[in-house]
Amino acid sequence: MKRLKVGVICYPTLGGSGVVATELGLKMAERGHEMHYITSSKPFRFTDVHPNIQFHEVKIDGYAVFKYPPYDIALANRIAQVIIEEELDLLHVHYAVPHAISAALAKDMANSSIGVITTLHGTDVTILGHDPALKNTVRYGIDKSDITTAVSEALRQETLQMIEPNKEIMTIYNFIDEEKYKPIEPGCMKTALGIDMNDKVLIHISNFRTVKRIPDIIASFKLIRQDISAKLLLVGEGPEQFDLMDQVKLEGLEDDVIFTGKRDDLPELLAISDLMLLLSEKEAFGLVLLEGFACGVPAIATNVGGIPEVVEDGVNGFLVELGDTEAVAAHALTLFADEQLYNRFREQALHTVEEKFNSEFIVLQYEELYYRIAGLS
Ligand code: GMT
């Protein structure tokens, strides 16, 4: 099959959409395709650069005439340049706003008929879509794309209902790199973090935004901590961080809640973790759940958005209603008290990644779409 030249537009900073965009690009590069990232900076997960991956930086000067630098237009201009100079076969845009709009503008600027795939990741619809000023923009981005994908069936349904686009949307699930996320020996991480060998370890990994409901995680942990000796790892950074630190102090949990900051060694942290908590009020998919599952860590998560497509209640984890911290604690204690049940959940978590979210299968779905949009199938 022809080697494709793909322009990729994504947010290069911390966040699930950036992770998926970079992991997919790496897999495509390994399959021989030429991937051109058109972004404001190098995506954060790109530690090793693959020879089939190129970066095209979007530069913008802060001219005094602008209150806000027009990044979306600078992006469109750069995409148009790359379409022409690199003779791209298609564009893959992650996150509708502003990327899908910049892509549509770029096509026009380059006078090109290049195909565009937009992948919706969640907040671009579930949060921005509620803003009347942006709802039409999201619809425009979807309608101008040749095909739009959503990372879960729940997100697809919500987009159809809320945005009412004129184009079909298909679901392609997220995946993780199974080579990176796999069960490994715990090493001396517990000692390094000052955790007693017998302590149970609960973990939450996110960008510490309100939508993640981390206060519920701390409240659930407090209940769990009343019954067993345990530690809570809060991994990441974000706007809520200082309020969370205050809450931990107020609850008298400073000795048991560890803020690790943003970390690159997630498999090592997951290797010492017994249970993941994700109690978000909105979550299109919950990529971090897959990262945990791939390392054999079951989860307790809220029954919202795309989470039930990942967490199967009573199989690889438990689902709870939003804000039900008592149910979280009860389920965690049940799991920790029954080794057989816990091991069954752990096996099922690994199985979920191997079967339902197998990266090879998902990458092939995207590749098929790439050929279709490039007019080669
Ligand atoms: O809130 C985040 O975790 C970041 C956000 C993003 O835009 O990167 O994540 C969204 O995309 C991820 C990758 O597809 C999904 O796994 C997350 O569920 C989704 N976040 C929300 O829907 C809140």
Automatic annotation (TrEMBL):
<feature type="domain" description="Glycosyl transferase family 1">
    <location>
        <begin position="192"/>
        <end position="349"/>
    </location>
</feature>
<dbReference type="InterPro" id="IPR001296">
    <property type="entry name" value="Glyco_trans_1"/>
</dbReference>
<dbReference type="InterPro" id="IPR023881">
    <property type="entry name" value="Thiol_BshA"/>
</dbReference>
<protein>
    <submittedName>
        <fullName>N-acetyl-alpha-D-glucosaminyl L-malate synthase BshA</fullName>
    </submittedName>
</protein>
<feature type="domain" description="Glycosyltransferase subfamily 4-like N-terminal">
    <location>
        <begin position="15"/>
        <end position="179"/>
    </location>
</feature>
<dbReference type="Pfam" id="PF13439">
    <property type="entry name" value="Glyco_transf_4"/>
</dbReference>
<dbReference type="Pfam" id="PF00534">
    <property type="entry name" value="Glycos_transf_1"/>
</dbReference>
<dbReference type="InterPro" id="IPR028098">
    <property type="entry name" value="Glyco_trans_4-like_N"/>
</dbReference>
